[in-house]
Amino acid sequence: MKMGSQNYFKVLIICLIAIIGSTHAQLQLGFYAKSCPKAEKIILKYVHKHIPHVPSLAAALIRLHFHDCFVRGCDASVLVNSTQSNTAERDSFPNLTLRGFEFIDTVKSIVEAECPGVVSCADILALTARDSVHSIGGPFWKVPTGRRDGTISKTADVLLGLPAPFHNVSTLLTLFGNVGLDAKDLVLLSGAHTIGVSHCSTISTRLYNFTGKGDQDPDLDSKYAKNLKTRKCKDINDQTTLIEMDPGSRNTFDLGYYKQVVKNRGLFQSDATLLKSSTTKSIIDQQLKSNKKFFIEFAKSMEKMGRINVKVGTDGEIRKHCSLVN
Ligand code: HEM
């Protein structure tokens, strides 16, 4: 009996240690304050020095962070190169249009020079995306740190987790729901399409062959479609031409995206479909009332997105190079 109770206490203590350990292992603001106190400043300085010369990279970097978080959580799995035996996320079809990998690699090498093996690629990506968007006049959001890098990156995971431009609102809500995000997050985060560009090929079906009969998507404003077809996407097979998602202000983070969407000028079906549900439509209408509120709400959703399935504590690793698992 005595032995039994001793064992009972041992198990209890082990459980308590495990619980305390796991509650300690979570993201926190300034996670590197002791282990690499200059890390966040180094990143900010680099971003402030370079993004003004290439403001379009801000769009690429926030998209990179989004594609990272939706597949296996924010663990930098999107940055890993394919090998002979593994096709990584990066080489999946939706990720072929991602940009900004070299920028992240350079930031990582500068941070590594300061503190080798301390700061994760997942945190570097989250911080760089935030600082880049803020440096072009966009919102600022909190980035608690302490993410660790994943060791698995598989192309097949991308199509399962990542929303596609042809998805309707119910599929989008399911995919966002799968990672703990709701309708408000869907509308707010889609607002990032106020910056950046798309390829004509992404909307060629909408413009030229929507139902297989050489027709146009009726949900796309016909004047706008005609304009795109005569000036930009002149050919259904065009794979290279880029178009602004928020024409005239692709480097300005503003309400332009929502203004486009309510005029049926959202570029993708995934943008247009946000008008089809009364819930998402009313969230759009809310945003259109105040740029300031949009920034505040966008920041909340970004912080939430940055927490998706993060690896913390002793999970994963701190990669030496962002494109290579250690
Ligand atoms: C709701 C589901 C979403 C879908 C279906 C979607 C889809 C796409 C597609 C297809 C492109 C253009 C690809 C190309 O043709 O080059 C794109 C670009 C972009 N997306 Fe999304 N996206 C979504 C949500 C998001 C979110 C949540 C963010 C960030 C928070 C984001 C940020 C961007 C940015 C900034 C670009 C422009 C990138 C550049 O200029 O290189 N998107 N998106």
Automatic annotation (TrEMBL):
GO terms for cellular component: extracellular region. The keyword Metal-binding applies. Its cofactor is heme b; Ca(2+). It catalyses: 2 a phenolic donor + H2O2 = 2 a phenolic radical donor + 2 H2O. Its EC number is 1.11.1.7. The active site is at 67 (proton acceptor). It is an enzyme of class 1 (oxidoreductase). It is found in: Secreted. Substrate binds at residue 163. Binds 1 heme b (iron(II)-protoporphyrin IX) group per subunit. Binds 2 calcium ions per subunit. Heme b binds at residue 193. Residues 26-326 form the Plant heme peroxidase family profile domain. Keywords: Calcium, Disulfide bond, Glycoprotein, Heme, Hydrogen peroxide, Iron, Metal-binding, Oxidoreductase, Peroxidase, Secreted, Signal. It comes from the Eukaryota. Removal of H(2)O(2), oxidation of toxic reductants, biosynthesis and degradation of lignin, suberization, auxin catabolism, response to environmental stresses such as wounding, pathogen attack and oxidative stress. These functions might be dependent on each isozyme/isoform in each plant tissue. Belongs to the peroxidase family. Ascorbate peroxidase subfamily. This is Peroxidase. It comes from Cicer arietinum. The gene is LOC101499357.
